User: Fold Short chain dehydrogenase from Mammaliicoccus stepanovicii.
Amino acid sequence: MKIIVVGANGTIGTAVSKELESNGHEVVKVGRNSGDYQMDMTNIEDIKLMFEQIKEVDAVISTAGAANFDDLSELTPESNEVAVMSKLLGQINLVLIGQHYINEGGSFTLTTGVIMDDPIKGGVSSAMAGGGINAFVQSAAYELKRNLRINNVSPNVIEEALEDYGDFFKGYTAVPASKAAKAYLKSVEGIQTGQTYRVYE
Ligand SMILES: NC(=O)c1ccc[n+]([C@@H]2O[C@H](COP(=O)([O-])OP(=O)(O)OC[C@H]3O[C@@H](n4cnc5c(N)ncnc54)[C@H](OP(=O)(O)O)[C@@H]3O)[C@@H](O)[C@H]2O)c1
Assistant:
């Protein structure tokens, strides 16, 4: 399959791209500044242009999506907008626009994260976005046309990211990116839709 991975150069995206390639798929690596194709998923015109320029796509995976990690008392409407525009709407807009472009029987796989189920201090903005994606996926699965499917993967903190995020996730069971990557492969190659694949241990 020809698969767009938005965020392919990141911690999770690198492992996902490797897993897909080792299973014979063609991966088009997309990032803001990295990869085969550059675009910013917070920009609707950028997303449209990407789907017009990258043709005959069978699946879209997003392993991208920013959020601020501020305590609730310090979170402002403005700082919360990072998660709204990127992790929430950026990923959702990939689907709203991409549904009209990708091949029949194709799929979307978005990324959420453990903190939507198991809160951490400072995680409220990212959890909000994850919960929104989760609910979007469940509902959209019923309405997607042309046998398109949609799922999301919710990884625990990733082993390779512990240096950056370890202090936020004391007591959590970190998972290797390669393990999370299997859930994305399952989403792309399997038959399921509307699912949340929780990779928590
Ligand atoms: N790391 C973890 O432990 C963990 C655990 C659970 C869930 N998650 C979630 O998984 C997602 C990815 O995490 P990660 O740690 O793999 O991230 P990462 O290493 O920071 O990589 C993010 C990737 O996404 C791309 N990107 C970011 N914003 C973008 C935008 N607006 N448009 C297009 N591409 C964009 C970046 O491209 P450039 O490099 O070109 O800028 C980069 O390739 C995040 O939503 C995160 O919350 C992460």
